[in-house]
Amino acid sequence: MPSTTTIKNCRLESAGDTWDAVRVPRSVGSDAVAILGNRSGAALQDPHEGCLYFFITPGSADSWETSDVPGARILGVGAHIVFPPARRTSGPGPHWRICPGDDGLLTDTAALRAALEDAAAPRARSGS
Questions:
Q1: pLDDT at 1
Q2: Please, are residues 41 and 104 in contact by the beta-carbon 8 Å criterion?
Q3: Reduced DSSP (H G I as helix, E B as strand, rest coil) percent helix, strand, coil of the chain, to 5
C-alpha cells in the first residue's frame, strides 16, 4: 500500500517492505536512544500512545522474544504507522525524536535489541 497523506501533513506508512518497526514504551525508548547514541537510526515519538518507534530491516526481529523488553511490539507486514514530516521534532502529535537521515530510517537490529534490553533491565528488576 503506498503512503497516504493524513492531517497535519502526516502520512500513513506500511511496515514490512523497506522497514519493520519496534514499538516500545517512551521511557524505555528514551533510554535506548541515549544508549545507542549516534548508532541510532530514526526514532519516532507518539505522545498520544506514549511510545517510541525504531525502524529495522524487515524480518530481522522475527526471532526476538519480546518478553526480553517489556512492552515491546514488533510491527511488520500489515502494520501501519503515522509518519510526520521529515523534520518535525515536536508535537502535539507524532514527531521525530531522531529525524530520518540521509541513510534512511534503519537502526541495526542487534544494537537496538541490546540497547532495549539494557534500558528495560532496571525496570524489570524494580517491577515497574
A1: 47
A2: yes
A3: 30, 30, 40
pLDDT tens for each residue of 47-102: 999 999 999 999 998 888 767 777 899 999 999 999 999 899 998 889 999 999 88
45: Cβ contacts below 8 Å, ≥ 6 apart: 26, 29, 51, 52, 53, 91, 94, 95, 96, 97
- 57, 74 Cβ separation under 8 angstroms: no
Q: What is the pTM of this model?
A: 0.88
Q: Residue 5 in contact with residue 11, Cβ under 8 Å?
A: yes
121: confidence class by pLDDT, cuts 50, 70, 90: confident
DSSP β-bridge partners for residue 23? 53, 73
Residue position matching grid coordinates 525504531: 54
Mean pLDDT of the chain: 88
Measured between alpha carbons, how far is 121 from 67 in angstroms, rounded to an integer? 11
CB atoms within 10 A of CB 112: 27
Segment holding 101, helix H or strand E: none
Q: Residue 16 is which amino acid?
A: G
